[in-house]
Amino acid sequence: MAAHVEEAHAHDDHGHHHKETFITKYIFSQDHKMIAKQYLITGIIMGIIGIAMSLLMRMQIAWPEQPNVIFKALLGKWAPEGVMDADIYLALVTIHGTIMVFFVLTAGLSGTFSNLLIPLQIGARDMASGFLNMVSYWLFFLSSVIMVSSFFVEAGPAAAGWTIYPPLSALPMAQGGSGLGMTLWLISMAIFIASSLLGSLNYVVTVINLRTKGMSMTRLPLTIWAFFVTAIIGVISFPVLLSAALLLIMDRSFGTSFFLSDIFIQGEVLHYQGGSPVLFEHLFWFLGHPEVYIVLLPALGITSEIIATNSRKPIFGYRAMVASILAIAFLSTIVWGHHMFISGMNPFLGSVFTFTTLLIAIPSAVKAFNYITTLWKGNLQMNPGMLFSIGLVSTFITGGLTGIILGDSALDINVHDTYFVVAHFHLVMGISALYGLFAGVYHWFPKMFGRMMNKKLGYVHFWVTAVCAYGVFFPMHFIGMAGLPRRYYTNTNFPLFDDLASVNVVITVFALIGAAFQIVFLYNFFSSIFYGKKATQNPWKSNTMEWTTPVEHIHGNWPGQIPHVHRWAYDYSNPYHEEDFVPQNVPMKDGEKELQH
Amino acid sequence: MTALLSILVLVFITVAIWQMVKIFDLTQAGKVDANNQIANDTDNRINGYLMIGFLIFIYVITIICFVKYGDLPLMSNSASEHGPGIDRLMIISMVVIFFVQTVTQFLLHYFAYKYKGEKGKKALFFADNNKLEAIWTIIPVIVLAGLIIQGLFTWTNIMNVDKGNDPLVVELYAQQFNWKARYAGSDNTLGKANVRLIDIDRANILGVDEADPNAQDDIITTELHLPVGRPVLFKMRSQDVLHSAYMPHFRAQMNCVPGMITQFSFTPTKTTEEMRQTPDIQDKVNNINNIRIEKSKDLMAKGEDALERYEFDYLLLCNKICGKSHYNMQMKIIVETQEEYEAWLKTQKEFKNSLVSIQ
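Output (structure tokens, whole complex):
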């Protein structure tokens, strides 16, 4: 079956080659490699917007209600006299979260690397459906434009937090941002979900059907396992958010009462009766928690690949790694209630969710220890991608450990919605996934653009980012433990928290420095596309299939026949071979046995 | 103008990076594998040392944070009966976390340094080991089992409201952007209420049912007074959006959800006065007042008023994003002796007397 498809594709390939116009090649491309680049560059632009918003918030928190020329320049009417308005602060909180979680770390990360690597690493000519893939990107692009454009509506963008809990998000009387801004947010997210579903279905179908001869599931690189499982979680959970969004639209515009009941606001009683905001919370977090792993698993997959390649060692415990990905994916769908311990749901459910949540620590611990063991007695090549991968393991551990506190319902009572939570999830999913994204960009840049990124700039970028990331988020745990609630526009109304003001300044300074040094990355990225050193075919001496394709991109990936696969992806430093790597398409030597991994 | 300047600054930074890279490349011109963008032995060595440096950085920042900010206000000095249970569990969890963090970060960064690559070296082909896998599956299982069991006991203990010990019933009522408290009065039973019964003209602001006999002696206040040592059962309501009643010193928090009544119960163990006398709080208050004096100097130089002296009080904060003034939705909590509490309560108006009659 696979061979048949391959021939048909190869045939097809000859027929259509060299007929591309500018528009079909660069804009409405159906080639997975081009779509990956489109995802990456859109993701980077959204990332710049998202990070800039976080800096505005940090400056407001560190120097509250102070006039600031930057506010005045960027926020216009939202910062009269340069003093930030409280409404726009909440809007920044909301849109920063939405953009970073969905547009940068879901679409930017998963969209880029799933598209680039799935066909290349499994030995396929392209995605199962190039057309759906193109539609998926353009829906993502459209939703990005709508989300950003919500900053230009009269009453401001959505400002109810990225979790958009009703009734705050449902009632324009409750908050300016809950008018047109929230409508745009909901439309944007509905389109985004459609994009994500098309992408995910495509990934799943491609991995199941288009693997080349010899590429059994147990020979798949861990990147593909991670993308594959991520796509499955996405298909399961995103539709639930879509339903929640649709029901919220019904409540907002058509007078239904799914999430609303008994409301008195601005002097009048509203007609809503019988609904419950807690229902929305359940629906939201049924996506919201798996979403954390939709963000994180691809990063872990990328890291597994990069750590193995640069350690010149097989990834330790391949089967355990696959099993832990599957275990995390399964558990991720039954832990959502740990966001709701104090939401008013039955305390017995709190007990159940505490139990399932803390179970996730087990596969996570297995992964962390396997990474560390992979480094042991390796021959570590400290390329920038490798540094970011090691950085990811470090932040994954630091951020993940505090999950033991937040997942424990009794302890959550007191740190819920404080800066402790902010520190926890930024380290474990924000920074970790961002490191995964950077690692992937440095590692696969030669594959994407046929050129190398500058390693010296990569080192500067990594070390400053690493120090600043800890500088920002480590002290943040402590102001959280001191009881400082998050999402406060200013803390000056609470003398109780005056002693934390200096910590907030330190955090902001680290954030500003860290963000400034991302310019080094941007410079490196964009200048290397045009002026980087020309890449060789397999610069990192890697085993996976993408490095058997020519440096110049061609439609269909391989000229002639697709190579067959004879071994797993991690035969690094195999004693049977002289070289310290053995690409997957190299046949077994006489007497060599495949590892029973 | 500012925007233009900012753009210029960005352009200059970019040019600066470009020039620096160029200069660097020129200095490397003569060397072998110059301009090769793949890590060589020098890179491996330098980054290996930096890994150790980074490990030290993580340890140092941990120590600084614990010493400087780690008087851990929410891990000691709780003011409720169940508080020490949470604090104990928190400390156990922190010890576990601290231990695992120290060890794993050490291994990660030390290995990254120790096994930094050298040309011609071959790594150990070590793909799997069931014994090791079993070890680091089973150890977390055991540790987590302990934490889970301890956590569940603590949680159940807190959330199970014991009606038998005659708790004082108090309603916490949230609205954008303030809190009200409703005491049940001498019958200790709250009158029925619904936002549909709100009648601003009659000053029935919480929508209490005027016909309900239980409601007549209810007392609505803007400060929360609690007698020390008596269990309090809070019934939470919200009239508009989600709010969260967060009382950090009592280790208590529960969301207020429009359309339903949520509850939380605790027993205060220290009066406000006793809490003010504890050394931890006195240190904290002194520190805060020093900060406020410094800040006041700046303010007075600008011709503004100085900040008031801070005195410790328990607080109820809103901890669920609720709109524009979310950051300033608070209520003072005063814990006092039974006599003081009763005396205060007598000065407050009962519901039936608080209504305004309209002709």
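The first helix of chain A runs from residue 2 to 16.
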